[in-house]
Specification:
Its main location: cytoplasm. Pfam families: AAA_lid_4, RuvB_N, WHD_RuvB. One of its GO terms (cellular component) is cytoplasm. Keywords: ATP-binding, Cytoplasm, DNA damage, DNA recombination, DNA repair, DNA-binding, Helicase, Hydrolase, Nucleotide-binding. It is a single chain. The protein is of the alpha/beta class. It folds into three domains: 147 residues, P-loop containing nucleotide triphosphate hydrolases (Rossmann fold), CATH 3.40.50; 68 residues, Helicase, Ruva Protein, domain 3 (Orthogonal Bundle), CATH 1.10.8.60; 65 residues, Orthogonal Bundle (Arc Repressor Mutant, subunit A). It has 14 helices and nine strands. The strands form three sheets. A five-stranded parallel β-sheet has the order 2-3-6-1-7, covered by helices on one side. α12 packs across α13. The two termini are 25 Å apart. The structure holds adenosine-5'-triphosphate. The site of adenosine-5'-triphosphate (ATP) has 24 residues, from α3 and α9.
Length: 347
């Protein structure tokens, strides 16, 4: 299954991103949760504003859908600066980055999403630009090529990455502030759902907001998406009000269960428990059994199942925890490991 086709996917396509625009908080006070990052960032921004200089470069790391782009927008907003958005994969050549850098105005915020996917030559150009506000533009080709240094006005890079570990140390070191975003608690997600419902003009009951929050896998993007599906259901089958019944019915239609697992997650757990007696079993065997690509199971279902304590990765393969058996309504074998124990991780 295409990841973005899943209602519980943490990723978003272009259409969804444009739908999300209306739901983004526009300042730090409206940004729910992530208390530590919010406090630290607020200090960095206030100090820079007080000094009248651009703040240090900011690196935001964490899984998709937790608010990195939103925070970048808030940073620009709080600084009263212009935000320029691009991403690692969009920059194919160093020249693409040179063109962006040389068009920046003083104090601009340059948001570089998926910064870990920048090509090496662009990465090296970025080091120089971040450190010395300078870029070397190469003119001509081959032996006749010359490099012309161009100075840039002071600006701030906000880099976002889902894989902070992949960033080379020299790049990581050029960020004066790094904030790591973590999965949200249910009460924070509930606050986001209530706020988003208000923005969408949907009347929502508190227990319905809680129901949506608890099935959203700790991720605001998923919470907002489930809210839109509940709104659809309420408009088509109900009275337009998102009450608990509407929430439960809609999420049943989309096969998202009370712990946030969808059809693929449950298929993986079921295969693990019933076909392989709880494992250990290799990932590719498991993927073939559920009729999916290995990569889909590895990147889409497994991280959530491991995080929730349903599955464990061991050197001999994947195993189901006691919680997995219980969640499927099955009796765990006597030697099943507890949900929290998690086995020994091998990577
Ligand atoms: N703390 C928050 N409070 C309220 N809404 C939030 C919060 N964090 C994220 N959202 C909402 O969740 C959606 C996804 O957020 P965002 O696009 O910022 O995530 P992201 O981490 O940049 O994702 P990606 O890595 O896929 O680019 C947006 O609609 C945003 O408004």
């Amino acid at each position: 299954m295409d990841d973005e086709a899943r209602v519980v996917s943490p990723d978003a396509d272009a259409i969804e991103r444009s739908n999300e625009a209306a739901l983004r908080p526009s300042n730090l006070d409206e940004f729910v949760g992530q208390r530590v990052v919010r406090e630290q960032l607020s200090l960095v921004l206030s100090a820079a504003t007080g000094r009248g200089t651009p703040p240090d470069h900011v690196l935001l790391s964490g899984p998709p859908g937790l608010g990195k782009t939103t925070l970048a927008m808030i940073i620009a907003q709080e600084l009263g600066s212009t935000l320029r958005l691009t991403s690692g994969p969009a920059i194919q050549h160093a020249g693409d980055l040179a063109a962006i850098l040389s068009s920046l105005d003083e104090g601009d915020v340059l948001f570089l999403d998926e910064i870990h996917r920048l090509a090496r030559p662009a990465e090296e150009m970025l080091y120089l630009a971040m450190e010395d506000f300078r870029v070397d533009v190469v003119v001509g080709k081959g032996a006749g090529a010359t490099s012309i240094p161009l100075s840039l006005p002071p600006f701030t890079v906000v880099g976002a990455t889902t894989r902070a570990g992949l960033l080379p140390a020299p790049l990581r070191d050029r960020f004066g502030f790094t904030g790591h975003l973590d999965f949200y608690e249910d009460d924070e997600l509930k606050a986001i759902v209530v706020r988003s419902a208000g923005r969408l003009g949907v009347s929502i009951a508190h227990d319905a907001a809680h129901e949506i929050a608890s099935r959203s896998r700790g991720t605001p993007r998923i919470a907002n998406r489930l809210l839109r599906r509940v709104r659809d259901w309420a408009e088509v089958h109900g009275n337009g009000r998102a009450d608990l019944d509407a929430a439960r019915e809609a999420l049943t239609v989309y096969e998202v269960d009370e712990r946030g697992l969808d059809r693929l997650d449950r298929a993986v757990l079921k295969a693990l428990c019933t076909r392989f007696a709880g494992g250990p079993v290799g990932l590719s065997t498991l993927a073939v059994t559920v009729g999916e690509e290995t990569e889909t199971v590895e990147t889409v279902a497994e991280p959530f199942l491991v995080r929730e304590g349903f599955m464990s990765r061991t050197p001999r393969g994947r195993i189901a925890t006691a919680d997995a058996w219980l969640h499927l309504g099955l009796t765990p074998p006597a030697d099943a490991i507890g949900g929290e124990a998690g086995g020994r991780l091998f990577d």
